[in-house]
Amino acid sequence: MTEVRPTDAGVRPASSSRRRGRIGERNRRRILTAAERVFARRGYQGATLDEIAKESMLPKANLLYYFKSKQALYHAVVSDILEAWLAALGEISVDDDPADALTGYVERKMALSRERPEGSRVFAMELITGAPVIGEYLRGALRDWVERQGAVFRVWQRRGMMADLSPEHVFFAIWAMTQTYADFSPQVTAVLGVDRLEEADYRLAVGTVTAIILRGLGLPPRRSGRVAAAPSG
User: Is the pTM for the entire model greater than 0.90?
Assistant: First the structure.
């Protein structure tokens, strides 16, 4: 009798499945990165799957294997950007030190503006046009996230650990201040009289934005501003 091996029966070894999974994830990330750059340059209407395929150096068929349409790919790009921003703070706890939590958040948000400026611009264009693609995500997942973090803020406020200011508007201020270094970088470099922002410029920006947020909330500074590594995602 012929021995029936797993592969003979149509079952691939686990190592082969894991390898395909890793390749698939690398391709998916490669496509998202390329799409982020193209959408930043062209906007949603101007971008084409052909240009994104060329940017990613993958066949167009590969794009459509992972993302069924340009809209699906665009939604994935914008959602990926937003999830990276939210991950920069994580899920804070009432047992955390508010100054440490907010200092780290500003640092990591600024790092994302430095490392993924195209992503920030894509997100800004989506919002400027009325959030036609991710409006439901904003009203759902983002709103839920802000409510969870806001509940922690309110505990800190009841304990007298920070000024009684609207958590929602604190987040709006942090997002606006940190993302301006990506969305309006030509204005920033023009005013500073430089061709591009260097690490020292970002370090000064982080320290300034952190001081504004902490002092506004009546919190003492915890660490000097520095450029932190952005979370992977």
Answer: no
